[in-house]
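INTERNAL TRANSFER SHEET
From: sequence group
To: structure group
Subject: DUF4280 domain-containing protein

Please process the attached sequence and return the structure record in the designated field. Keep the field labels unchanged so the import script can parse them.
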Amino acid sequence: MPQLVCNSAILSCTFGAAPMPLVVLPELPVLADGEPAAVIADIVPDENIPSFVMCESLANPAVAAATAAALGVLTPQPCEPVVVDPWLPGSMRVRIEGVPALISGSVCLCAWLGEISISFPGQEQVSIES
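Return from structure group:
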């Protein structure tokens, strides 16, 4: 059974340099192990999803330009996630103020083709039906 994702969950991007924590603002009334629970709409760059330090995706215009300037040698650039769609899948049965809860195993996509995944849900005590 998947676990409920909450504040401080650890995220990774396939083109990012380092894992980083998810930030869930304490706006919703549900806590998991004392931390605010996340929903599939928690995708706002710099507010919920932090920079993964450096980006290596050639779909990122900054990386493509730097790599071209370096005569084809991959040249990572600062990561600025561009997430436009919600996390999928969310919980089909658990909703927080009408929005599906975010569960371990969910992913979201960056416009620069990176897949952002949850490597640790932020807590291990609350499992929910997906």
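Handover comment: The chain has a mean pLDDT of 96. The first strand starts at residue 10 and ends at 13.
Transfer complete.
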